[in-house]
């Protein structure tokens, strides 16, 4: 993808040793990989948010096809949960009703919400007890593609299906014939076609994370997308997987990228596969031309490439000629970082297996001041590293739980420049709550688009500089969004006073 300093081809070649060590080359549990069979889930119609209730509970979904319902967790009985569409600047309220047998929360990923609405257990709110509820209310400043998911034991709650799309619409959206959301996910199914246990295993946490063997789009195996000549589609892609990185090759479709992580970017065509780490999003404009069939392939994992989906263009043209080239989306009201006066901080991500322990290696400290004992690092009773050493670090410290002393404290309105180094053999999508940031450089070379993002994918041994104005007060999570890495220590807090 052009927004990366290295080309996607160069980035993809760095992962061969990582895959060999992680075991993802054998698609777990002995189950056959299920790619592209069956139908694609229809996008749920825009939700009336006047009295919106999101009930988290157990349900089922046709992960392997219409005749293969699998027990999952979902919101309002579906995976993904309801597609919420609201207008930029529209006051929004939603009631979380917890129908699970354990605590939960909702985090509104990428949305610049007030700190009390951020859904981080113990840090911004008490976790919601079973059969209890919690009201979220905020007014979104930014238009774009966002999503919602729990932050309580997220490695399992998200991994079992608790997530949904949140679309905040522009006041003057671009002209398209269809606006589609694809929530991409993978699932680890066993030989019986059920979700495998072992959430939070040490192997997953210390290597590539929980990568599954079954791919879905909107909770179902993909089915071809049927379109007509001269049709224009806005395709909103959301990576909802725990750990899988998608590297999407669109072949001759030649889409135009118009937004990343919900934030507008200079429209540009892809010259390399589109890389989406967990939690990342991309908005594409796809113009169909002559009647033909196109494959969208996921080529990230070497030797495991597959057809994610197909787009079939057929029938009578929808209009007499193609629409003009897409114009840039209107900018969101993000304050521009003031780089000359920025407070510069070095961030070092370390840990993991394969001999890449950073800093003080085996003598890693552990950070936790919750006092509640609610440590996500315990991995929900799976035994993963409970009472033992955590494996991932931020500046040499491996965090437990969500509440700990901040690594950075900054006055509201100041610009932060984070010089981040990935001193590990693994990929890490690094997410900051409450803010979006500009990606300034990769390995010392300026990015072409200086794109705004809230989650930046770092390759092994890569250095990335980001900058943002710390204008949203509170304690904000800063962590790897491979959920097993987060639970095993790769998280910190940035405090804005």
From TrEMBL:
Keywords: Metal-binding, Oxidoreductase. CDD domains: CuRO_1_CumA_like, CuRO_2_CumA_like, CuRO_3_CumA_like. Residues 68-171, 179-294, 387-496 form the Plastocyanin-like domain. PROSITE patterns: MULTICOPPER_OXIDASE1, MULTICOPPER_OXIDASE2. It holds the Pfam family Cu-oxidase. It comes from the Bacteria. This is FtsP/CotA-like multicopper oxidase with cupredoxin domain.
């Amino acid at each position: 993808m052009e927004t990366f300093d290295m080309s996607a081809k160069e980035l993809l070649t760095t992962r061969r040793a990582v895959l060999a060590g992680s075991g993802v080359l054998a698609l777990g549990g002995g189950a056959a990989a299920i790619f592209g069979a069956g139908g694609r889930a229809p996008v749920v119609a825009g939700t009336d948010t006047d009295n919106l209730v999101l009930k988290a509970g157990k349900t089922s979904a046709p992960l392997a096809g219409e005749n293969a319902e699998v027990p999952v967790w979902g919101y309002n009985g579906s995976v993904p949960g309801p597609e919420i569409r609201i207008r930029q600047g529209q006051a929004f309220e939603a009631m979380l009703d917890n129908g699970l047998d354990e605590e939960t929360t909702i985090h509104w990923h990428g949305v610049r919400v007030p700190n009390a609405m951020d859904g981080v257990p113990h840090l911004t709110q008490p976790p919601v007890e079973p059969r209890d509820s919690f009201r979220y209310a905020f007014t979104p400043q930014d238009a774009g593609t966002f999503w919602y998911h729990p932050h309580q034991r997220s490695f399992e709650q998200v991994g079992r299906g608790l997530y949904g799309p949140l679309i905040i619409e522009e006041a003057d959206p671009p002209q398209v014939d269809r606006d589609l959301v694809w929530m991409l996910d993978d699932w680890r199914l066993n030989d019986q076609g059920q979700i495998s246990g072992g959430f939070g295993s040490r192997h997953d946490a210390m290597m590539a994370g929980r990568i599954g063997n079954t791919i879905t789009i909107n909770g179902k195996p993909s089915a071809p997308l049927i379109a007509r000549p001269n049709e224009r589609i806005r395709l909103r892609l959301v990576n909802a997987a725990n750990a899988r990185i998608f590297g999407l090759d669109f072949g001759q479709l030649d889409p135009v990228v118009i937004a990343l992580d919900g934030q507008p970017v200079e429209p540009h065509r892809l010259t390399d596969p589109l890389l989406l780490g967990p939690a990342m999003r991309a908005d594409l404009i796809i113009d169909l031309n002559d009647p033909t069939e196109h494959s969208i392939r996921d080529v990230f994992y070497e030797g495991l490439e597959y057809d994610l989906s197909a787009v079939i263009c057929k029938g009578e043209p929808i209009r007499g000629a193609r629409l003009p080239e897409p114009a840039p989306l209107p900018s969101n009201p993000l304050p521009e970082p003031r780089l000359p006066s920025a407070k510069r901080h070095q961030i070092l991500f370390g840990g993991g297996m394969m001999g890449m322990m950073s800093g003080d290696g085996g003598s890693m400290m552990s950070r936790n001041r919750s006092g509640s004992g609610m440590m996500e690092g315990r991995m929900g009773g799976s035994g993963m590293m409970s009472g033992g050493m955590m494996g991932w670090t931020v500046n040499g410290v491996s965090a437990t739980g969500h509440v700990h002393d901040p690594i950075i404290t900054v006055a509201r309105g100041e610009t932060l420049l984070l010089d981040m180094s990935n001193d590990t053999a693994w990929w890490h999508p690094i997410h900051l709550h409450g803010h979006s940031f500009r990606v300034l450089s990769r390995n010392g070379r300026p990015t072409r688009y200086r794109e705004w993002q809230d989650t930046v994918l770092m390759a092994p041994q890569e250095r990335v500089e980001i900058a943002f104005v710390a204008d949203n007060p509170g304690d904000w999570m800063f962590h790897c969004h491979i959920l097993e890495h987060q639970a095993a220590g790769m998280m910190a807090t940035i405090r804005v006073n």
